[in-house]
Amino acid sequence: MSSLESLAADIATGVVQIVDLTHTLDPDFPVIILPPEFGQCARFRMEEISAYDHRGPAWKWHNLTLSEHTGTHFDAPSHWISGRDIPNGSVDEIPVEAFVGPVVVIDCSEGSAKDDDFELTPEVILGWEARYGEIPKNSWVLMRTDWSKRSGEEYLNMKEDGAHSPGPTPDAIRFLIDERNIRGFGTETVGTDAGQGTHYTPPYPAHFYLHGAGKFGLQCLANLDQLPPTGALLMAAPLKIKNGTGSPLRVLAMVTK
Amino acid sequence: MTIELLPPPRKDPQKKTLSPTRPPEARSRASLGLSAAAAEGRFALQVCAECDTVQYPPRDACSNCIGTELPWQEVTPNGHLLAETTIRASTKLYFRERAPWRIGSVKLEAGPVVLCHIHNDCEKNAPVTMLNRLDASGQGVLLAIPTTRTNNMEDDPQLRALSADPKHRRILIADAWNPNTPAIAKALLDAGAATIFVGEAESWRPHPNRRELNEMDNVNVLPLDVTDTASVSKLAGEIGGKTDILINNARFMRPGGVLDRGDTGFAKDEIEVNYFGLMRLAQSFGPGMMGRTADGVNAAVAWVNILSVNALSNSPEYGCFSASNAAAYSLSQSLRGEFRGAGLRVMNVFVGPTDDAWYQSLPPPKVIPTSMARSVVDGLQRGLEDVWCGDIAKDVRDRWRQDPKVLEREMTTGGDHA
Amino acid sequence: MERRSSYKGVAIIAPFSMPYQRYSIETAHWWVAKALRGSLDAADVRPEEIDGFSVASFTLAPDTAVGLTQHLGLCLRWLDNIPMGGASASVALRRAARAIQAGDANIVACVAGDTNQIDSFRNMLSSFSRFAMDASYPYGYGGPNANFALLTDRYMQKYGATREDFGRICVAQRSNALNNPNALMKKPLTLDDYNNARPISDPIALFDCVMPCAGSECFLMMPEEEAQRRNLPYATIGSAIERHNAHAEDDIQLRGGWTLDVDELYEMAQCTPTDIDLLQTYDDYPVISMLQIEDLGFCAKGGAPEFVRSHDLTITGDFPHNTSGGQLSAGQAGAAGGFIGMVEAIRQVTGTAGPTQVRDAKIALVSGFGMINYDRGVCTSASIIKTGSRA
Fold first, then answer.
1. CA separation, residue C48 to residues A85, B60, C113 (Å)
2. Distance from B142 to chain C by nearest Cα, in Å?
């Protein structure tokens, strides 16, 4: 039996489970909010073209409006100024092998429950590695905060001084890139950076360093609590959008029972 | 003495809702001048440019000198009630359903004798004051009221039929985010509105009006995003059958003309909110409201749009925003036509720059929320179709009426640089 | 002002009334044809002998008198369309007489007729006049009821008339109508009935209002010697007047255009009000009959209430008035309502009125009033006709 045949059999028998890490695309799902004088991320919108009616008697379909960065989505290197010169840095150019790889999950849910501004630091990462071993090269690294269980106003958690949600420190991101050479970094929050990420140096360190190094970002992930710390396989293939800087995703993980 | 209008009892679900009927709509072209004046609440009649004779009914030639220049001018609304009748039988369903209906002959101080509606508090053979109001067909009609206020006079059925009075009505304000929303809600409640629904977009983020609105009695904040068809139709499904007045104050604006930004991003947002937002609201709420224009004390009565006065003539500093408002204004005219058959009014409130963040860089005068709220309530109470709020709006209106091309030049000067 | 020349030498013959119907499925064309045929048969005149034709109708649309010529197969050298409603009879008479005197026509048929289909009254109202469309119907859409209610209200305020005064006119006409087998109203009317009637548009109540119906009326005119040659009973014209938009300066119409021409009316006819044997007023509401009684010189302005209290208006009374029951009791057949008094008066002075005949009637005054263009009737007319040759 080939490895794919055995995988197929394992999926069929439930030995390997498929976990959906995606939020439903829904007009009410939050998007990142920038100061209003900046351009804004389009909200997800769906307009009926027809619904078995005078506009089309036997069929129903919709037109969609959304941003590359609406809902559960992929950030390509070209998304950030630091990654604009990366070769093959847009979603249509990235080699497809990059979209599928091993995934580790760093559970920060306890800290995040206590502190909206919980920081993923090198120390937290090292602590995790002390338990689960060193993060393998070329892994997806996901920061679990259980933030995906929040809804409504709690999700962005906007205050007068901006959003408050957990994220990585500049040092932590540098560590993952320089010391562990990861594939990409993913979060349950609206961005790969913390809500207050603009106040780091550099601002938005996850975006800045990841994309500058040709790494990818995943955000608005869900169901990270259903993944093991290590050992799962993640598939996050963006739509093939010419010069696209990102894409809405259906993110699937394979988990061995 | 007018009996105070009480809040209506809850509707009997077994009774058929009365279908809308209307008073006669047909008018000569000359007569539409009366409607145009009524749209702004002016009592105006044709006055002969040659001999100053005041004309009524509207004519194409002066009944005194056969001159043909007969501009509409405001004239004194004072008169004397000569004769009256109470109509108890009419072949027109609108009046048949509302009988008895009082009409009379009034000798105007300005000269002509007019047939007009008579407020119930008018005394026989006594002085009266005339109002020129839009009726349910959208045409200007004359109503005689007492020269001095009487108790509850706004509750007179004939006067109320010529208004869109918020009293006892349930009103949806489309956009909780707009800085003017709390003031409008408060003014409507002060005017006797029964319930204010306020639509709130993106409740997943906080906005400055939420607490104030939540603290007001009889205000319900409900999810509504005018850029989202599903959201609009969902709310219409919930409250469309009890929305008597809809105030569309949703606004998206960013400064700049065509070249400032070099993209269509904000312009799209402006069109999404300011133009398509109006269309979505109308498609979802319009039919239900049109079906309820004869539904008793709190029948559906008016649709209100808050528009920038730059809908009339573009201000390039806010060029794309102006264009979206021009589109909305044009759409509102279509809606007027489409709503007309049901007798649902469309009131446009044209405002000058408002005193909020997006007009921060403009010098005063600016429209503050309470004065906009006053304009909205006053316009509804007087059944107006066009309301001009603030000095700048009135200034633009006057210049536009005088010569739209000259105004365009004034609005589009290139500055002094070479 | 120069006086107009006399109407002598012209005979009015062959009065014919087509019995009225409350509602009709027929058209105005049918009703006009029926009345015309009635008069022709009565006078034994063949259609091709007619060379003049005068028509009054509200419901011929899209036709006018022109369409009727082809429709009825009439070849004419004189054609008149009289859009004057209640004033049309004396106007038609006057103009046809002039045509005959001038030799423009030899035999003229004057017809008025309208149908009344279920919705035609309402439809007619909505397209009646521009001023009414602009400035009257939007106010309660009371139609003529409301217009005449205002006039009645003002008249009562000014001259102290009471509802009973108006009621006397209605009650007397009903009594006359009971002698007219073609009248739509068949039941006697008492002053109590009148007073207790359903209010329509205060102070007007049900019996102040006419009942719209379908009907038609016709008479023929020809040179007097022609009528004599044919041995037909005929009437002659003592005088006839028409006047439009008189007294525009009056705030409310409490007098009509008759006042401008009444002196000439009697002078030409060489008689005075006391010589009048019967009066046919246009009576769509009793108040307008009062205006005519005053303006035609039977009493002073404001004196009509007292006049009707002190006179008996029935066929056998001292002041026979609207002897066939008038429109109030016979029905208002559109423009034929303008002819009802004239056709009845012709019958009266030619001694052919049958059950409504006033004894020894020789001089009749027929008055017309029409076209509430806005707040008042714009057209007034009147004529005095006399016995030419009795049946």
1. 105, 44, 21
2. 9
